[in-house]
């Protein structure tokens, strides 16, 4: 039972990332009808926003400390971060320690701006083009963004630490009545799940309870009629593209301590996220979230040694097997609208 609970927690962790990326993909497809293969690159850029903030906060100045000497007897040179010089040692160290959460404030305007530029500069020219053209151009854009990140940050993963208070693991099993050390789980993975739940809830609340969101949902259902009412639905859809980019970016920011950012991490998640969207139903926001968590949990259980001993490599293909079954039996997906991806 303890292994089952542990794998369930692992599934929620993976499912959180899948759900957040798939949610942004579905927002773009549902509003603009665009298959955006560059969405994984937005997740990657978000992760590197966390890296950038960490590097900015750790910029240092070198000063001589006359009270200390090196092995040659010269005054020792000490590297001191600028934030510690400006705000004091304690405050400066706290800012550096909390660089990942602080990166959220940096990432939101950056990701929204990137979303606006992508939509206005490139995507809008492909609204009425076939999905194959959209896939090719956005996939090419993803490769360009990937190589830009590689050129600036290098090819190696960059460790990005969580705040010290969230490092390490806690005894989850004790909370539910198990013996001590039966179920040990990292703090930050639980934080990531809670963060994903907040972001998903905020997006749904925005669409459900605000006038802007109601207009967007109406435009997703019948774009022409909304336009005839005198509403500039294109502008609202552009804003939604920026919001979708921000959701992907925030998912990447908070995922940085879990998986050290590297230039190809966007591609690693992109294909899986598209599978999640297809399984949940193209254009269905609840379907994207539901499928993200379901497939994350399924992948986690498939990675158990007991399962892999019976079906070697099943953890690598289980999501695709499920996708094939869903497409063959229900092409619209679990919660997709009738007529979407159906003849």
Automatic annotation (TrEMBL):
It comes from Pseudosulfitobacter pseudonitzschiae. This is High-affinity branched-chain amino acid transport system permease protein LivH. It is found in: Cell membrane. GO terms for molecular function: transmembrane transporter activity. Belongs to the binding-protein-dependent transport system permease family. LivHM subfamily. Keywords: Amino-acid transport, Cell membrane, Membrane, Transmembrane, Transmembrane helix, Transport. Its main location: membrane. The keyword rRNA-binding does not apply. The chain crosses the membrane at residues 16-35, 42-63, 98-123, 190-216, 237-258, 270-297, 309-328. One of its GO terms (cellular component) is plasma membrane. It is a multi-pass membrane protein. It holds the Pfam family BPD_transp_2. GO terms for biological process: amino acid transport.
């Amino acid at each position: 039972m303890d292994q089952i609970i542990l794998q369930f927690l692992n599934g929620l962790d993976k499912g959180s990332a899948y759900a957040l990326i798939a949610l942004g993909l579905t927002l773009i497809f549902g509003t603009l009808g665009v298959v955006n293969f560059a969405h994984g690159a937005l997740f990657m850029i978000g992760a590197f926003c966390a890296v950038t903030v960490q590097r900015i906060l750790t910029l240092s100045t070198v000063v001589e400390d006359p009270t200390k000497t090196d092995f040659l007897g010269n005054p020792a040179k000490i590297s001191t971060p600028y934030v510690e010089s400006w705000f004091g040692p304690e405050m400066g160290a706290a800012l550096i320690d909390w660089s990942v959460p602080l990166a959220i404030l940096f990432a939101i305007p950056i990701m929204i701006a990137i979303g606006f530029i992508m939509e206005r500069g490139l995507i809008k020219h492909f609204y009425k083009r076939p999905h194959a053209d959209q896939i090719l151009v956005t996939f090419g854009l993803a490769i360009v963004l990937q190589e830009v990140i590689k050129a600036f940050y290098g090819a190696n993963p960059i460790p990005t630490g969580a705040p010290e208070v969230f490092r390490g693991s806690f005894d989850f099993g004790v909370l539910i009545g198990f013996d001590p050390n039966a179920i040990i789980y990292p703090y930050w993975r639980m934080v990531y799940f809670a963060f994903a739940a907040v972001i998903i809830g905020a997006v749904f609340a925005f669409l459900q309870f605000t006038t802007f969101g109601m207009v967007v949902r109406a435009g997703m259902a019948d774009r022409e009629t909304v336009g005839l009412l005198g509403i500039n639905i294109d502008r609202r859809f552009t804003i939604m593209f920026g919001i979708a980019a921000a959701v992907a970016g925030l998912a990447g920011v908070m995922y940085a301590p879990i998986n050290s950012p590297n230039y190809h991490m966007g591609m690693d998640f992109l294909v899986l996220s598209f599978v999640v969207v297809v399984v949940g139903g193209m254009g269905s926001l609840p379907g994207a979230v539901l499928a993200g968590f379901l497939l994350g949990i399924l992948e986690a259980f498939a990675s158990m040694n007991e399962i892999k001993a019976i079906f070697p490599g099943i953890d690598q293909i289980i999501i695709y097997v499920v996708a094939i079954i869903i497409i063959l039996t229900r092409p619209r997906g679990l919660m997709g609208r009738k007529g979407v991806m159906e003849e």
